[in-house]
Amino acid sequence: MPDLVDVLAAVRRGMIPAHIYNDAEIFALERERIFGRSWIFVGHESEVPLDGDYVVRRVLDDSFVIARDSKGEIRAMFTMCLHRGMQVCRAEMGNASNFRCPYHGWSYRNDGRILGLPFHQEAYGGEQGFKKRGQTLLPAPSLASYNGLIFISLDANAEPLEDYLGDFRFYLDYYSRQSSAGLEVRGPQRWRINANWKIGAENFAGDMYHTPQTHTSVVEIGLFREPKAEKRKDGATYWAGVGGGTTYKLPPGDFRERMRYVGYTDDMIARIEQIWSSDQQKLVGGDGFMISAASCFPNMSLVHNWPKVEDGDGVLPFISLRTWQPIDEHETEVYSWFAVDAAAPEEYKKKSYKAYLMCFGSTGMFEQDDVENWVSLTNTAAGSMARRLQLNSRMGLLEDDTPVGKRLPPNEFHGPGVAQVGYNEANQRALLRLWADQVERPVEASATVAVGTCADGIEPLVQTASLPVTDRARV
Amino acid sequence: MTAPQHDRGAGFRRFGRGETYSEQSVLGDHAARDRRVGSTLPFSDERHLRAHQFLVDEAYLLDAQAYDEWLDLFTDDVHYVMPVRVSTALGTGYDSSPGMAHFDENKYSLGRRVARFRTEHAWTEDPPSRLRHYITNVRTLATPKDDHLIVDSAELLFRSRGDVNEAATVSCGREDLLRREGDRWKIARRTIFIDESVIRMQNLAIFL
Questions:
Q1: Which of A41, A44, A40 has its CA nearest to residue A472?
Q2: Are residues A324 and A384 in the same domain?
Q3: Phi-psi region of B38 (alpha: psi -120 to 50; beta: other; left: phi over 0)
Q4: Chain A environment of B102 (Cβ under 8 Å)
């Protein structure tokens, strides 16, 4: 690998050494320094609506059972039996009050505590030999949720999720807080692509420039009217802390008219007015920007678009959440969820789901063409020539770093962070600057936990934005 | 294809009372409900021969990406559904992700997908994949109606793109409800039952 100092310096100038998209040594650093301590999105509380419900989610190679116990508390537990290390849960989802290891029969409650182990007295001499009382599966080092979105950090000393998300919460709310009922999340669809994980995260963060070219076909077939080249560049990009995204400029109108333009129903708009802050409403109603794609460092992305799903002129929005979970430097597992406000009318939920399926996910017509590009990029980044090439990611900057476009003043863009209108790569640079800052910083050694150090039981999930999460839809 | 029963009182009662995946899916309300009766028809039965030939001819259209002709094989009320499979413990009572699918299509959305391939800008298939849809284990069953047949099949799709990456495969089982319309048979309901919970293909810009 070329000298890391040079690589990071180039990245910070917006000149991206092409090999970072397919480099085993870079990935080893990412594994340790990014995925070893960032907050990683793993799912939503509405995926485990009932007591006993669980899903299993990974952070790279580490697999966690995310379970709701009999008191409704949610925990995330490393799925490795304390005895010989067998996975205690091999399903992807289900409902269970306890998990029994198939190897020697140790069993654990869904709050992580050991329930029993065969022949405790005869084999271990009872509590004197092995203190099972208070022993638990290893908890996720840090676990918290925001608007029901569950995040895990492998760093036990991670800063609070709320602080990590910071100003990006303002934008996260558009996707995950449309009523006091909270979000209903379904899925995920999962599939693997031969592409580096960073490419998708950068694309969703700020690549308005690709939309008219890559997604020409979806405009041509009448699926989505917005991405015509001349229209897309009127949108603004914004970056706030650990995340940023793109917007579309809406036709003239007030808040309600503009929400109706993208297809929200009047009852949904009324609930949204109750829950979005004045500035959140002004960004849409006054400034005329509607959120579209976004990314939150390192590998979570979000989408909100409003396609046409049946004959006629009507459109309606859908929301999708996703993670780009790296397998290695050239393969990524995509987890893509559909999300909808739990209080939305049933008919709206169905059509919104249809909109999602037609546009994004494993079969989505937007997504199909994106991945083709990213796979090709990743292949090309593997060779020695890619080590000689720095990709120009400086769109929106003159040679002396003067911005090409105007930064939007607060009275023209009511969200936090930095925003500007037009094509630029400011967000991709912002994301990769965070990447460089993390890749540069060594991790502190994590403590080895011997059996017996979790005697007080596992702390349940910390809610950082309290919203009642309603049950997931039962069709 | 009949879904597992969901008789657990507590926990995951996330499916409706429908007995086919099509009925359980979010967008399957309009789908035909016809179900199989009796056992597999003899392989010499005229109905089986017709159904088998139908599937083989269809596979050649899919290999050739002759999607306009392919779309014409479906009834106007078609439901084309491919659930998201999940690994669940034995006896859980369900094996697909509640409220989510890969495909949950009607004629309109299938038509949009076909129309997209007709544009010159569906980059994921330019250059086109080399496709081979292997159809096997075909068996045919009667329904209470003479003009409806159920056909089960196994399918393996081999998809090769470009000259760099390895080819990808998808293995699935299918249940089709065939309906006679005039002198033609058409697909009124297709359930695609993929054998992986994590798909090892870059996208499903293909049909199964």
A1: A44
A2: yes
A3: left
A4: 189, 357, 361-363
Average model confidence (pLDDT) across chain A:
92
Q: Which residue among B88, B98, B102 sits closest to A363, beta carbon to beta carbon? A: B102
- In the structure, what pLDDT confidence band is assigned to residue A459 with cuts at 50, 70 and 90? confident
Model pTM score = 0.94
Long-range contacts of A33-36 (CB under 8 A, 24+ apart): A33/A438, A33/A439, A33/A440, A33/A441, A33/A442, A33/A443, A34/A298, A34/A435, A34/A438, A34/A439, A35/A59, A35/A60, A35/A154, A35/A298, A35/A326, A36/A154, A36/A155, A36/A443, A36/A446
| Strands of A107-109's sheet in order across | A98-100, A107-109, A114-116
Residues composing chain A? 475
Full domain range(s) for residue B57: 21-194
Q: Is residue A30 part of a domain?
A: no
Domain count, chain A: 2
| A217 contacts B119? CB cut-off 8 A | yes
Nearest to A371 among B11, B99, B124 (CB): B124
Query: What residues of A are in contact with residue B122 (Cβ under 8 Å)?
Result: 217, 368-369
Helix, strand, or coil here: A406? coil
Termini Cα distance of chain A = 52
- With the C-alpha atoms ordered B112, B113, B118, B120, is the resulting torsion angle positive or negative? positive
What is the pLDDT averaged over residues A310-316?
A: 90
Comparing A348-362, A375-389, B18-32, B135-149, which segment has the lowest mean pLDDT? B18-32
Under an 8 A CB cutoff, do A186 and B201 touch? no
Show residues of chain B in contact with A185, CB under 8 Å: none
In this complex, is the C-beta atom of A369 within 8 Å of any C-beta atom belonging to chain B?
Answer: yes
* Count of structural domains within chain B: 1
Is some CB atom of chain A closer than 8 A to the CB atom of B122? yes
Question: Residue B36 maps to which CATH number?
Answer: 3.10.450.50
ipTM confidence:
0.93
pLDDT at position B168: 97
Closest CB to A94 among B25, B26, B88:
B88
Indicate whether B206 belongs to any domain.
no
User: By the CB < 8 Å criterion, does B113 face chain A?
Assistant: yes
**Quick check: A284 pLDDT over 90?**
yes
Region class of A258: left (phi > 0), else alpha (psi between -120 and 50), else beta: alpha
* Residue numbers in A near B88 (CB within 8 A): 91-94
CA distance B129 to chain A (A): 12
* pLDDT tier, B21 (very low <50, low <70, confident <90, very high otherwise): confident
Q: Which of A194, A188, A227, A256 is nearest to A47 (CA)?
A: A188
CB-CB neighbors (< 8 A) of A95 in chain B: 8, 10-12, 92
For chain B, say whether A186 makes contact (Cβ under 8 Å). yes
CATH number (domain holding residue A404): 3.90.380.10
The CA distance from B180 to the nearest CA of chain A, in Å, is: 26
Q: Are residues A257 and A364 in the same domain?
A: yes
Q: How confident is the model at residue B30 (pLDDT cuts 50, 70, 90)?
A: very high
Average pLDDT, chain B: 90
Are the beta carbons of B10 and A95 separated by less than 8 Å?
A: yes
What's A59's domain CATH number?
A: 2.102.10.10
Which chain B residues touch A336 with a CB distance below 8 Å? none
**Could you say which residues from 303 to 342 on chain A have a Cβ atom under 8 Å away from some Cβ of chain B?**
309-311, 333, 338
Domain boundaries, position A204: 166-438
